[in-house]
Amino acid sequence: MKIVIDAMGGDNAPLEIVHGALDALVVDKDVKIILVGDDDKINPILEQRNYDASRVEIVDAKEEISNEESPTTAIKTKRESSLVKSFEKLKSDEDAGGFVSAGSTGAVLVGAFMKVGRIKGVSRPALAPVLPTLDGNGVVLCDCGANVDCKPINLLHFAVMASSYAQSMLGAERPRVGLLNNGAEAHKGNELSKQAYELLSNSDDINFVGNCEARDMLTGDFDVVVTDGFAGNIALKTAEGTANLLLKLIKRGVYAGGLKPKLGAAMLKPVFKDVKAKLDFNAQGGACFLGVNKVIVKAHGASARGAITASILQARDLAKKNICERIRDGVMRANSMTSAEADEK
Fold first, then answer.
1. Residues 94-136: tens digit of each pLDDT
2. Burial of 337 (0-12, 13-18, 19+ CB in 10 A)
């Protein structure tokens, strides 16, 4: 199994990216890595480590794509960039099962769509992170920003793809799918939500359990929450911001409250450490871009080496479990059912 890595993407590239990739080799003795980026910057980092050189390949790429650039223009014009050459390597090498980047989200999504290609039958690929839940199992949020404007069929495909993902990553045998909405009742929501509710309700391929209000997204009552990318991105960033706010408020209260709060915090240190670990993106891996022909994992832009290692192992697991083939089969069945229903009407 080979995993292609954009060595120049992210706030901490290439140092943390390369170290994270080499750490993945230690965890899994069978995985091989392909580092794509400026070899003048990569090689000095490699010289600092002991590693099996037979399991590391370098593809030289002198250009980089920044967050400020237009994703579509950059992918079309920067052919020597680490991102474009990564996708070309991913597509051409049959042994390359997946790809990891902490670079520009827009460029990763556009590049994956243009260079790797969409799975046949998928209306739109979608970005799907796994968020922490109260029960510790996690929930797949799909979509979190790839598709701002959606149609009902897109949300049905998101549900099918994310269900396959939840089965593979979370071990959910029959993932419970919820539709993000402004109320739990079936009649709530805008036209998109109402039409999507009907489609999801009539699909035998997914376990649709009804609407999900944003406050219930992390309770553990759902394995998958589907929505358009506009609402999904707002929900994701609101959850992230709220978690960061609570941690800062607790820390501020402890330090400002005198001796008693500090003593209490010392006693609760294991609890705080556990909570922080569950909310730490460095330990969670990245968000998977579902619906393209190879496994694409988008790591957080501020990822350190631990997050890169986790993302590489995540890409390996998804490739081993044939997630792309499972999505293809699921979407084909869903399309057949919706076509049959349309013919009946």
1. 999 999 999 999 999 999 999 999 999 999 999 999 998 988 8
2. middle
Report strand pairing: 295-298 vs 96-101.
Answer: parallel
Identify the structural domains of the chain with CATH numbers, from first to last.
1-122+291-321 (3.40.718.10), 124-284 (3.40.718.10)
Packing angle between helix 191-201 and helix 152-169, nearest 10 degrees? 50
The two tokens of residue 25 are 């080799």
Strand order in the sheet with 176-181: 130-131, 139-142, 224-226, 176-181, 207-213
Q: What are the residues facing 212 on neighbouring strands? A: 180
Percentage helix, strand, coil, to 5, in the chain?
50, 15, 30
DSSP state of 292: B
Interatomic CA distance for residues 65 and 104, integer angstroms: 7
User: What is the distance of C-alpha 79 from the center of its chain?
Assistant: 25
Q: Which residues pair with 35 in a beta bridge?
A: 5, 58
Strand partners, 180: 212
Q: How far apart are CA 292 and CA 161, in angstroms?
A: 11
Q: How far apart are CA 79 and CA 9, in angstroms?
A: 15
Q: Which residues of 119-129 are buried (b: 16+ CB within 10 A; e: fewer)?
A: bebbbbbbbbb
pTM for the whole thing? 0.90
> What does the alpha-carbon distance between residue 311 and residue 171 come to, in Å, rounded to a whole number?
18
Digit-coded pLDDT (tens) for 150-209: 999 999 999 999 999 999 989 999 999 999 999 999 889 999 999 999 999 999 889 999
Report how far Cα 153 is from the mean position of its chain's Cα atoms: 21
Q: First-to-last CA distance in the chain?
A: 47
| Structural contact between residues 175 and 167, judged by C-beta atoms closer than 8 angstroms | yes
Whether 83 contacts 6, CB under 8 Å: yes
